[in-house]
Amino acid sequence: MSYQTITKRWGNSLGLVIPKNVVEDSHIRENEKVTVLVIKGSQKVLEETFGIAQGKIKTSSQKIKDRSRAELYD
Fold first, then answer.
1. Please, are residues 16 and 36 in contact by the beta-carbon 8 Å criterion?
2. Residue 16: CB partners within 8 Å, gap ≥ 6?
3. Beta strand 13-16 with 7-10: parallel, antiparallel or unpaired?
4. What does the pLDDT look like over 8-55, one tens digit per residue?
5. Contact yes or no for 34/72 (Cβ under 8 A)
6. Sign of CA dihedral 33, 38, 44, 49
7. Roughly how many angstroms between the first and final C-alpha of the chain, as a whole number?
């Protein structure tokens, strides 16, 4: 699941608001540990990430995509 949000000042830190529908759909509870993937700026994240490994990865691109989806969305 993916969504955009705005950072908010929270004391000396910044906080993120998770919309209600995302909380409900993901079954997130208070004080539960979650993983946040931060992507700022470039829209070509995968291209930049895998471009540096061009010719060094022996796995097919489909297997890499499947594995990425499993880690991000399961």
1. yes
2. 5, 7, 8, 36
3. antiparallel
4. 999 999 999 998 998 998 899 999 998 887 777 655 666 666 666 666
5. no
6. negative
7. 9
Across 41-57, b (16+ Cβ under 10 Å) vs e yields eeeeeeeeeeeeeeeee
C-beta of residue 19 within 8 angstroms of C-beta of residue 25: no
Six-digit token string for 55:
């010719």
Q: Which helix (DSSP H) or strand (DSSP E) does residue 19 occupy? A: none
Q: Please check whether residue 57 is in contact with residue 64, taking contact to mean a CB–CB distance below 8 angstroms.
A: yes
Q: Return the residue matching tokens 């909380």.
A: 23
